[in-house]
Amino acid sequence: MSKFRIDKIPKNEQDIEEIQREIEESHPHEHEHEHSVEELIGEIYLNVQSLQSKVEELNKSNNNCKKEISKIYFILGKLLIALTTNDNDEKIKNLKEVLSLLE
Predict the structure, then answer these.
(1) Residue 94: domain span
(2) N or C: which end of the chain has fewer CB within 10 A?
(3) What is the residue-wise DSSP string for 18-34?
(4) What is the rounded distance in angstroms from the CA atom of residue 79 to the CA atom of residue 25?
(5) pLDDT confidence of 1, banded at 50, 70, 90?
(6) Residue 20 lies in a domain
(7) Contacts within 8 Å (CB) and 24+ apart, 43-49
(8) Over the stretch 15-29, which tens digit does the pLDDT of each residue have?
(9) Domain count along the chain
């Protein structure tokens, strides 16, 4: 049994057909396995699509986390200003900004 080496991940039907052709050319005498190879490539393709979808979800989640962390730092900065300033108007202004961000 020989190992297959696929240099690229199939991204569309043409890629799958190309991989199938390469497999058939390297093993022309194994016609009875042709159908199972096609099924295997199809399954791999579906798994790659599933992984791509999961990567997109993780990227969205990652971006949302970045926004929330940025918001937390902004709030901490405003609280620090409110705690350290002697100007009551500045304290009120910064605390109102914090309050509006938290609502």
Answers:
(1) 52-102
(2) N
(3) HHHHHHHHH-TT-GGGH
(4) 69
(5) very low
(6) no
(7) 44/10, 45/10, 45/16, 48/9, 48/10, 48/11
(8) 777 777 777 777 655
(9) 1
The answer to whether 10 touches 16, Cβ cutoff 8 Å, is yes
Q: Examine residue 32 and state whether it is found in any structural domain, yes or no.
A: no
Cα separation, 39 vs 44, in Å, equals 9
AA identity, residue 83: L
> Which pair of tokens denotes residue 42?
């199809």
* Contacts of range 18-27, beta carbons closer than 8 Å, 24 or more positions apart: 26/2, 27/2
- pTM, two decimals, is 0.54
Which residue has tokens 């390469």?
Answer: 22
